[in-house]
Amino acid sequence: MEETNPPATGLVALLGAGVMGEALMSGLLRSGWRPADLRVSDRSPERLADLQARYGVTGLSPAEAVAEADTVVIAVKPQDMTALLDEVGPHLRPHVLVVSIAAGITTAFLEQRLPEGTAVARVMPNTPALVDEGMSAVSPGAHCRPAQVEIASELMRGCGKVLAVPEKQQDAITAISGSGPAYIFYVVEAMIEAGVLLGLPRATATELTVQTLYGAATMLKETGEHPTVLRERVSSPGGTTVTALRELEDHKVRAAFLRAIEAAAVRSAELSSGQ
Ligand SMILES: NC(=O)C1=CN([C@@H]2O[C@H](COP(=O)(O)OP(=O)(O)OC[C@H]3O[C@@H](n4cnc5c(N)ncnc54)[C@H](O)[C@@H]3O)[C@@H](O)[C@H]2O)C=CC1
Ligand SMILES: O=C(O)[C@@H]1CCC=N1
């Protein structure tokens, strides 16, 4: 039989199979890992049974899941991290790589709660991983070798793009690309509401908005043009676009984005201290 599993990750344990855990797991399965390469754990037995039924993966307790794992991916909420680390720490294999995707949780936080010398990597992914269009940023901890950064990157490449970054950038990255899909969905909601306000059927307003977003994102990605250039091309002198943009400027929408994203980064930095 053809060997499709990238061997570097070895057996992967996923702890916490909620929104992001499932996105990552399904990305791995779509990109060559087999159900037998994965051990999955979730606090909710119903959730675990559902994932076992849909993906054919093996569901276990956290301690059982990590016992034979070469790579452990932790995808629980930051508030659940300490209890989980205490539970699995004694069961980790000596040369394991621990990859955490929890917002705000630093590699130092993880290293302090895991056996001395454990290799950890901090990763910030986002939900478009569900459709293989994720954006992940990977940072190594003190004991994580370059080859292990590559293993963490390989895991994330299963569902999108990956950047290796210094850890000091992670709070800003969490605020931009980690939380970013929510800001875009929020803008989309507002545009659809505006269409409905103008009398369009909701389905029509939705189709117009979603395709416009998709087209604009594709232009940004494929042309490599600066967004200002692309925006100016839409704005005819004395026309509709510039009239709308003046309203956005009057309502300080750009300043609101700056404030909002700054607040998200501050919140990310707070999460390691358990607030
Ligand atoms: N949702 C998002 O857009 C993103 C989330 N993240 C991070 O990913 C992590 C997970 O977030 P979501 O998937 O949104 O949350 P979620 O609440 O959907 O999933 C967390 C899962 O962990 C399970 N869990 C909690 N404690 C556990 C334990 N001790 N053992 C096993 N399973 C346990 C829960 O039952 C739940 O299914 C968070 O740390 C978050 O900061 C990172 C990037 C994006
Ligand atoms: O809202 C949160 O805390 C997580 C991290 C990035 C996206 N969702």
TrEMBL record:
Cellular component terms per the entry's GO annotation: cytoplasm
GO process terms (BP): L-proline biosynthetic process
GO molecular function, one term: pyrroline-5-carboxylate reductase activity
Stretches assigned to the Pyrroline-5-carboxylate reductase dimerisation domain: 167-271
Positions that bind NADP(+): 15-20, 75-78
Pfam families per the UniProt record, alphabetical: F420_oxidored, P5CR_dimer
UniProt entry keywords in alphabetical sequence: Amino-acid biosynthesis, Cytoplasm, NADP, Oxidoreductase, Proline biosynthesis
Pathway(s) where this gene product acts: Amino-acid biosynthesis; L-proline biosynthesis; L-proline from L-glutamate 5-semialdehyde: step 1/1
Compartment(s) where it occurs, according to its Swiss-Prot or TrEMBL record: Cytoplasm
EC number: 1.5.1.2
Keyword Amino-acid biosynthesis appears in the UniProt entry: yes
Reactions mediated catalytically: L-proline + NAD(+) = (S)-1-pyrroline-5-carboxylate + NADH + 2 H(+); L-proline + NADP(+) = (S)-1-pyrroline-5-carboxylate + NADPH + 2 H(+)
Main enzyme class: oxidoreductase
Keyword Transferase on entry: no
Domain Pyrroline-5-carboxylate reductase catalytic N-terminal, first and last residues per copy: 12-104
Function summary: Catalyzes the reduction of 1-pyrroline-5-carboxylate (PCA) to L-proline.
Family assignment from sequence similarity: Belongs to the pyrroline-5-carboxylate reductase family.
Annotated protein name in UniProt: Pyrroline-5-carboxylate reductase
Gene field: proC
